[in-house]
Structures are given as C-alpha cells and as structure tokens.
Amino acid sequence: xxxxxxxxxxxxxxxxxxxxxxxxxxxxxxxxxxxxxxxxxxxxxxxxxxxxxxxxxxxxxxxxxxxxxxxxxxxxxxxxxxxxxxxxxxxxxxxxxxxxxxxxxxxxxxxxxxxxxxxxxxxxxxxxxxxxxxxxxxxxxxxxxxxxxxxxxxxxxxxxxxxxxxxxxxxxxxxxxxxxxxxxxxxxxxxxxxxxxxxxxxxxxxxxxxxxxxxxxxxxxxxxxxxxxxxxxxxxxxxx
Length: 240
Fold this sequence. Notes:
Radius of gyration: 18 Å
Number of helices: 8
Helix content: 25-40%
Largest sheet: 6 strands, mixed
Structural class: alpha/beta
C-alpha cells in the first residue's frame, strides 16, 4: 500500500548556511499516530512545515496521498493544503473575531473568489463547525470573541478548526504534553469513526510527553520516536 506521506532524500538549506534537514527518508501509513520528539534545533518544525509547503525543501521529494507536492503551485498547492490540518503552538487565531468564525477559517481553502474574501460559508459547514465546538466543550462560546478564551479553550478551538477541513494529515505543534487536549482530539475522531485525520504527527520540544490521561482512557501511541539527530546521512530515531 502506498504511504500517505513520504519523504525521499529531502534536504533543506537556509541562507545562513544551516543544513536543517539532511537526506530525510521517511514513510508514514494511513492511520498511524506518530510523535517526533527531539531537542530544540533538531529540525522538527522544519520537517513538519514542509508537509503543507509552509517551508519549501531545497531538494528531494515529498509525496502526499500519492502526489509529489515538492514543486506544485497555484490551485494544485491550494488543493494539497486542504488535506493538511495544522494545530499551531501559538494558536494563530484572529482574536477580534468570534470563536465560530475562527473555526470556519478552516474551510477557507474550499471557497473561491468573493465568497472567500467575504467569508460566505455553506450552511452545512456552519452547522458542522458548531457541532465540533460542542464536542470540544465550547458550544456556549460560539459567539464570544476568541480573545476571551483561556489557553486550554483556545487549543480546543484550534482542534475544531483543523478538523473542519477533514484533513488527510493532521500536524500538531508541541501538543502531546497536554494529555487532556489530546484525549479530547482522539475522542472526537473516534466518534466520527475515523483516525486522527489519517495521520497524527505530533512534535514535542522536550523528552517527556504527557500521556497519563491517554493511557487511562485506553489510548496509546502507535509509534513514538525520539530524534537522535538530523545531522547525519538520514533522520535517525532512538527506541523509546
């Protein structure tokens, strides 16, 4: 079976002569939930931000859902980005807008022209956004400003926004340490009869991912890899 996400001999050089990614070769199958864990500066963020082309690679290939996405642009790149949900560590919310409006931003990639500019969303997507917020325990805050939420509530809002896209790949930035939020994410996906967007990729800045709540609920990581280094010939992992 073709992997959903594949890196083939991927390298990334920055202008300051930093070789951030060294000949990365990695395959991830549908349904896998993987945590990439390593020290600051090991290349975790660079690696994952290449999946939705927020960062372009210097050479090599990245294939998503069987398509080489390394050099595509325009409408093709927009279509690829619909397949990738990302939950950012710093939230990336528009704080002056309502909680519901922020969730609906997850659907912007499907809107064209004036509808995207004006934020005119299909009624069924509005209802689905409200449903996701209710599942995240934020149903009563739909019309509150995002700025009024607590840190934990903002994180759950980001989960709802990412899931609205129905992504093939879900990338989570420094998320696994929050076991309660991760359990909420897995619960919502389980209720929907799906895995975590096909793939769950978590990046963690420390070496001790929180997981007591997940284990107590019967969840476990399918794969946990600690990055030894990204400065050798290829990405290497140490067994956990």
